[in-house]
Amino acid sequence: MELLALYYKIYTDRVQPTDYVKWAYHALYLDDLNVKKLASMSMKEQLNIFEIEQMFEDAMNSLQREIPSKEQCIDFHLQQLHVRLLTPTEHAMTIVKEIYDCAIQHELLEEQIKWQGISDVMDDFQYGDNDHGYTLDKIHQMIVTHARKLWHTKASKIDFKEFIGQKIIAIDTEIHFIIQFKKGSLVIECPWRIRDTDGILLGETDILSNQQEWRTVNELLVGRTIEDVQLLEQCPILIVQCGNIFLDVFHASSYFDGWTLTDEEDFYVFSMHGGSIA
């Protein structure tokens, strides 16, 4: 059991002693004595919740792990439910209902709105007149299609306000592709492309075949003002918009980091190996 999943149960008062043991068993790779003690507790016997909670607290202290916030745990729970809808499942309607109810319970209006249409269709099919003649197969197909669209277009909650309005002042290509701002920079160590509203203007592979194209990169970017920055979490793709010019940065490695964005003060975000954002 993942730590975020465990804490979601703790925050929602649904945790059982066996959940702590399952987490410890999952965390045995950390090679910690307190984790091993907790993992060794038999789930077949009646476990004392107070004893198990103390053992878990000892393990967390030993690992020096921070307690995740309730918001982080809710996001993780919703993500795990969403993942199950990316492929057809006979439990699709039950999963959607759990997502929708979770959004309402925790007052996540944006998440509720995302699933409102599908929820209404399900209610019409199950409890209404079903004027549109929905079938179970049709609803399952609608759910998968909707879930996939939301998954691939999910925008990060990171606020990039530090970069909005900044100008690109220079391009450095000596080691990595570095875009310098007045305050900060974007260091790119992964595939990228520059496009406008009509299509792709230039990409990493073009540069590899013709190094003189770096001059074009300068002409396209230097002096332009950043108007928007978007991060699509699940892909992941970073999109920097300067007027009608868009810079797309793709993380394409499970072993190496991809890009780093910083204002050289408090803001520091980078794409880690595997595409996770930190």
Walk me through this protein's architecture.
The protein is of the alpha+beta class and 278 residues long. The protein has three domains: 3-63, no CATH class; 70-152, no CATH class; 168-275, no CATH class. Helices cover 43% and strands 18% of the residues. It contains ten helices and ten strands. It has helices at 3-11, 17-26, 33-39, 49-63, 70-83, 92-105, 109-127, 136-152, 204-209, 214-221, and strands at 168-172, 177-181, 184-188, 192-196, 199-203, 228-232, 237-242, 245-250, 259-262, 268-270. Strands 1-2-3-9-10 form a five-stranded antiparallel β-sheet, with helices on one face. A hairpin with a 2-residue loop joins strand 4 (192-196) and strand 5 (199-203). Helix 7 packs antiparallel against helix 8. It is globular. The two termini are 22 Å apart. The model has no long low-confidence stretch (mean pLDDT 94).
How many strands, what sense, and barrel or not for the largest sheet? 5 strands, antiparallel
Report the helical percentage.
40-55%
Q: Report the C-alpha radius of gyration, rounded.
A: 24 Å
Instruction: Provide the residue-averaged pLDDT.
Output: 94
The global form is globular
The helix/strand series, from N terminus to C terminus, equals: HHHHHHHHEEEEEHHEEEEE
Number of E strands = 10
Coarse structural class: alpha+beta
Q: Strands of the biggest beta sheet: in what spatial order?
A: 1-2-3-9-10
Number of domains: 3
N-C termini distance: 22 Å
A few lines on this structure:
The protein has 278 residues and is α+β, with helices and mostly antiparallel strands. 43% of the residues lie in helices and 18% in strands.
